[in-house]
Amino acid sequence: MNVINIKNISKIYQMGTVQVSALVDVSIKIDRNEYVAIMGPSGSGKSTLMNIIGCLDTPTSGLYEFNGVNVGEMADNDLATIRNKEIGFVFQTFNLLSRSDALHNVELPLIYAGIKRSERRELAEEALHHVKLGDRMHHKPNELSGGQRQRVAIARALVTKPSIILADEPTGNLDSKTGIEIMALFNELHQQGNTIILVTHEEDIAAYAHRIIRIRDGMVESDHFVENRHVPKILA
Amino acid sequence: MKLLDFGFELKEGLAISFQAIRANKMRSVLTTLGIIIGIVSVTLMGTAIEGLNRSFNENIQKLGADVLYVQKFPWFDGGDNWWKYRNRKDITVRQYRSIKDQATMLAAASPSSGRMATVKYLNHSIEGVMAVGSNQDYLAISGATMENGRFFSQAESDGGRPVVVLGYKVAGDLFPNETPIGKNVKVSNYTYRVVGVMAEQGNFLGWSLDNRVVIPMTNFMQRFFNRRHGIEIQVKVSDLKQIEDAKEELRGILRKVRNVKPGDEDDFAINQQELFIQTFNTIGGVIAGIGLFITALSLFVGAIGIMNIMFVSVTERTKEIGIRKAIGAKRLTILLQFLIEAAALALMGGVLGLMISYPLSLLLDQVLPTSMPISVVLIAIFISILVGVISGFLPANRASKMDPVDALRYE
Q1: Number of structural domains chain A divides into
Q2: What percent of chain B is predicted at pLDDT more than 90?
Q3: What pLDDT shows up at residue A123?
Q4: pTM surpassing 0.90?
Q5: How many domains does chain B contain in total?
Q6: Residue A234 belongs to a domain
Q7: Burial class, A172, CB count within 10 angstroms (exposed 0-12 / middle 13-18 / buried 19+)
Q8: Can you give the residue range of the structural domain that contains A204?
Q9: Cα of B5 to nearest chain A Cα, Å
């Protein structure tokens, strides 16, 4: 079954008196355990698409089914629940809470899910161990390197065991060596059965995915599987 | 929303807000200045009223509900008629005698006058002692009791004998190590023999009732009387229930003896405790009114301050709001978070206010015996939380309605 079934969705923004179409009649299906890269230059509409996939925004028209449930017309609170339980976000700028330590950042989605303290702590620690930050749990973001911060963000995305992990330019703020390490982590997560959607404008990064969807001018330009997939090799 | 969830939100909200307040200590304290002032004023007002009530309730009993005071001046009349009262005929000992002879509803009556004097015994000397002239009924009317010896008799009183009854403090100061009974003291250079000492009476409206001496009225009139101070007549009615009738009877006697023509208004005043109670309630009301006004004003200013800083805080933390929303915080969660923060901020102001006003209340206690009532403390805490919640609502509402996409994009 499709995790994501997007059918003929459009998104129109009202900018003053002008209407801007960010997405026009886009249809995409993504299956469980796929590793998809969404590519496109800036202004192509890929960010809008990502926001809609991530339930941060709703389409103006069209159908969006998430795990078979129509989320296109859901109210704010229900969307918040979907984001909390089904979607793990990884952002370019990490978006960690600067005043909280790594552990608390990872715990946050569990707090909003209403999970008991002891259980929450256990899950968060497990997620941090998973991204190999077991020894940095009580460090605040400004005491961590960029790569470590992104790992914390990934742990936060993983901790609720979501249906998809949605990563927006996850290596954009990292040097290339660290970027490769992060991509290796995504690869590993994919192998463990996670569904990963990667939004990027870099061909190199997109090449790690199994499938690339190219967006241009608010429309799907191409949608194909990658033949020569990059497999990230961690340089010692 | 489930109760369990609410507990989570509250706990998390508190944790976040303490973090936020700690991160902006100076700003937080300055913001709550209005609340601090408001809480200081409301608690001090509450404490002052508590003190007034307490001392009033203690004092009013010393005045005796069943005692009437015949004087030229009515108690608590505005200053406008001062000259009129001032120029009235004096109250005299002769009028006292008419009352004593004619009135039927009185248990006791005494003329009374007082003057500051210096009291000496050997090399001990006390200045500023109230020398009171009265008669043998003094004890019955004032409610005082004897500690030692006896009060002067009617014969001593009528005969104007140089005998004196000492107040508790005067006796203690002049005779630290010996019994005063039978000793001769000097009251403003006149020699008096001590016949008794009165028991401790405490204060009346800040005046020590123990720092006085009582001598026979006839003697007082000869040696100390000063027309400027005049005398008053104190009468104790035999039945409190008939105090109004007794007052009427008294009025009739006085009008006759003072030659007040029918139809003219009284040229004297009959005062009673009742007047004190009325006036006290008025004073208490005025204090409460002023206090409430200051409190309301400063709490209003405080509320605006908190609202302002919360708007700043919401804007500053737009990104944080976006992050929280992206990972699943609901509107209500964000709303609560900022409401709790505003309430915590205001509560901090309230607690700081209490920390300031508590020592001030101890200071107040030196003037007016009082203590800060626990109810006032609880009200102060409640008010500050309420102000926080009210003033935090608009900013919190704005935060909760932020679009997650826009908020995440904010730098």
Answers
A1: 1
A2: 44
A3: 95
A4: no
A5: 2
A6: no
A7: middle
A8: 2-225
A9: 6
